[in-house]
UniProtKB/TrEMBL annotation:
The protein's enzyme class: hydrolase
Protein's name according to its UniProt entry: Purple acid phosphatase
Family: Belongs to the metallophosphoesterase superfamily. Purple acid phosphatase family.
Residues making up the signal peptide according to the UniProt record: 1-26
EC number, as in UniProt: 3.1.3.2
Calcineurin-like phosphoesterase domain boundaries: 194-406
Annotated Purple acid phosphatase N-terminal domain residues: 70-182
Annotated Gene3D superfamilies: 3.60.21.10, Purple acid phosphatase-like, N-terminal
Needed co-factor(s): Fe cation; Zn(2+)
Lineage: Eukaryota, Viridiplantae, Streptophyta, Embryophyta, Tracheophyta
Keywords: Glycoprotein, Hydrolase, Signal, Zinc
CDD domains hit by this protein: MPP_PAPs
């Protein structure tokens, strides 16, 4: 018996020891362990992804409702936890040479909702719009949308499940019952459990893999950091290409095939009708048309908390999600110090209370710290204009898309390793048909010509040769830059889990991996005691606006 007792103790000790070793070997690194030596994961030639667009014959993108019944239903957040937006579309779009827009006033915008599925006693009424995509050239087809409805629900409780249905009860044409959950109250102790972050999504077979993996991670919120449908890779007759300029170099205007937006809305409805989605514009949303109009689909199809966050434009806004303040910036709207966006950003940052929302996360579409040849230093003018302001206010994390690959930086500011700089993460690998970015600017012969790098829509040139550091005198590094911690060309999505005031777990998931596996994983650690926010003197006009906004909240 004593023998078995000793053996039992040894066995227990051995199991504990093995468990201890496994835990320590599998210990998740943190940004405090960095800066990390740059890592490039070799390209897996056997997996390039099925980046082919879903056809209009796919049942997941076809219209299944009748008459003015709601479709393409989605939920998005307002600036604070106590309000959300419900959006949907009724009626059929038209595309052709003789289109007749629908009349939005003929269909009501009503949401019935409540905390109990059998008691939807509360009602909210909203507004509706239609938009047109018009081309003043012979042979090009015009488009007019279905009726797009946006209804704001207010007075909601935090972290609470609500049921709803939308439509026009007078027709009657109401949806089935859906549900959503509000964000937690803004405080340093409460956060959404999981936030999915994805960019450059499109509507390919690889997109379906991304969304399937994303839904498997059960997010409470989805951030789409630009490039939604890639409708502008098509002509108005529905002919598409992986490279528009290569296939259609002589079109009089950059055409689009707007029904791709409707296909995307139908495909995404099972996810975004219950999980709020916050969208930011990318370059593929510009969509030029008659009279120099741009962003018509983007502005019309989504609801944004622009007004609630003090912005005059849906191209930039902010919102809270628990103890996180998100700033959604526009890479394709003026951003210099004298422009509205910059002045709005300055005011928004000055009003952030880090004792309430400790985490400050900024997103925009074109990255500042990408080492891929594609779009290399394309947004340098935006970086020159805004980076110092974001650094002074202690932005913790930055998320971008645009480059069709994954990359995570060390903490960086002005191309220099800085323990107080933000971590920049590019997630432009959602699955679009333009395929992946695979070449790096630091590889021999892959550094682009500087004059070719500025964004054509925004113009300007700010990307000069480096004046200091290992790349001094050159436009590109000759090896993976020290600020680049990890890069890989694979499709996927990311999950952000903020644990408390100082620690957030970031995981990136490849599409080719199993659902429970992470390709990149790290704890992002804030150090407010080491990186205090510089005291700011609020300009008189900022203070006046702040007091005015505060009075409005109190009334």
């Amino acid at each position: 018996m004593k023998y078995f007792g000793v053996v039992g103790l040894i066995l227990i000790w051995f199991l504990v020891f093995v468990s201890f070793v496994e835990v320590n070997e599998g210990q998740i690194l943190t940004t405090l362990d960095g800066p990390f030596k740059p890592v490039t994961v070799p390209l897996d030639q056997s997996f390039r992804g099925h980046a082919v667009d879903l056809p209009d014959t796919d049942p997941r993108v076809q219209r299944t409702v009748k008459g003015f019944e709601p479709e393409q239903i989605s939920v998005s957040l307002s600036a604070t936890y106590d309000s959300v937006w419900i959006s949907w579309i009724t009626g059929e779009y038209q595309i052709g040479y003789n289109i007749k827009p629908l009349d939005p006033s003929e269909v009501g915008s009503v949401v019935q909702y409540g905390k109990h599925i059998f008691s939807l006693r509360r009602k909210a009424i909203g507004q509706s719009v239609i938009y047109n995509q018009l081309y003043p050239f012979e042979g090009l087809q015009n488009y007019t949308s279905g009726i797009i409805h946006h209804v704001q629900l207010t007075g909601l409780k935090p972290d609470t499940l609500y049921y709803y249905r939308c439509g026009d009860p007078s027709i009657p044409a109401m949806s089935t019952i859906y549900h959503f959950k509000t964000m937690p109250i803004s405080s340093p102790k409460s956060y959404p459990k999981r936030i999915a972050i994805v960019g450059d999504l499109g509507l390919t077979y690889n997109t379906t893999s991304t969304i399937s993996h994303l839904m498997g991670n059960n997010p409470d919120l989805v951030l789409l950091v630009g490039d939604v449908t890639y409708a502008n890779l098509y002509l108005t007759n529905g002919t598409g290409s992986d490279c528009y300029s290569c296939s259609f170099p002589d079109t009089p205007i950059h055409e689009t095939y707007q029904p791709r937006w409707d296909y995307w809305g139908r495909y995404m409805q099972p996810l975004v009708s219950k999980i709020p989605i916050m969208v930011l514009e990318g370059n593929h949303e510009i969509e030029e048309q008659a009279e120099n109009q741009t962003f018509a689909a983007y502005r019309s199809r989504f609801a944004f908390p622009s007004k609630e966050s003090g912005s005059s434009s849906p191209l930039y806004y902010s919102f809270n999600a628990g103890g996180i303040h998100f700033i959604m910036l526009g890479g394709y709207v003026a951003y210099n110090k004298s422009d509205d966006q910059y002045m709005w950003l300055e005011k928004d940052l000055a009003n952030v209370d880090r004792t309430v929302t400790p985490w400050l996360v900024a997103t925009w579409h074109p990255p500042w710290y990408s080492t891929y040849t594609a779009h290399y230093r394309e947004a340098e003018c935006m970086k020159v204009a805004m980076e110092e302001l974001l650094y002074e206010y202690g932005v913790d994390l930055v998320f971008n898309g645009h480059v069709h690959a994954y990359e995570r930086s060390n903490r960086v500011y002005n191309y220099t390793l800085d323990p107080c700089g933000p971590v920049h993460i590019t997630v432009g690998d959602g699955g679009n048909r333009e395929k992946m970015a695979i070449e790096h600017a630091d590889e021999p012969g892959k550094c682009p010509e500087p004059s070719s790098t500025p964004d054509k829509f925004m113009g300007g040139f700010c990307a000069y040769n480096f004046t200091s550091g290992p790349a001094a005198g050159n436009f590109c590094w000759d090896q993976q830059p020290e600020y680049s911690a990890y890069r890989e060309s694979s499709f996927g999505h990311g999950i952000l889990e903020v644990k408390n005031e100082t620690h957030a777990l970031w995981t990136w998931h490849r599409n080719q991996d199993m659902y429970n596996k992470a390709g990149d994983i790290i704890y992002i650690v804030r150090q407010p005691e080491k990186c205090p926010i510089k005291p700011k003197v609020i300009k008189p006009w900022l203070l006046q606006n702040y007091k005015f906004d505060l009075m409005k909240k109190l009334i």
